Amino acid sequence: MQIKLQKEALFGKTLPQLEEIVKELGMPRFTAAQIADWMYKKEIGSIEDMSNISKTHRQKLMEKYSFGLSEPVKVQTSVDGTKKYLYRSHTGKFIEAAFIPERNRNTLCVSSQVGCKMGCLFCMTG
Predict the structure, then answer these.
(1) Counting Cβ atoms within 10 Å, is residue 32 exposed (0-12), middle (13-18) or buried (19+)?
(2) Euclidean distance between CA atoms 65 and 50, whole angstroms
(3) Cα dihedral 47→67→11→83 (10° resolution)
(4) Any idea which fold 8-66 has?
(5) What is the pLDDT of residues 73-116, one digit of tens each?
(6) Per residue in 45-66, pLDDT tens?
(7) What are the residues facing 109 on neighbouring strands?
(8) Residues 6 or more apart whose Cβ sits within 8 Å of residue 89
(9) CB distance 61 to 76 below 8 Å
């Protein structure tokens, strides 16, 4: 039986953490700022899209790290504007998030664990 190890996510790392990562991978320190700029300002969705970082350095990053964000498997929008997002976890099970617009505020409900027992009627995972 072969065990597949999950890669560590880059998204969510601070600049000092990214600096440590690029140092460990033998990359110039400024590469950390480039990575942060792509993730947090330009909002790209993959390491491959970081075009001002050399292909060699991107390959090194992809060997050890994942970007850390996944696209929803399913998105549903109701007539009141509520949006439900279904995500598949790395274990293959599902978690859900719901964006609920209201008159004076917006609510974001995040199922942070597989098998949430809240029993919300609108939830795809409950």
Answers:
(1) buried
(2) 14
(3) 120
(4) DNA polymerase; domain 1 (1.10.150)
(5) 899 999 999 999 888 776 778 888 889 999 999 999 887 667 66
(6) 889 999 999 999 999 999 999 8
(7) 98
(8) 95, 114
(9) no
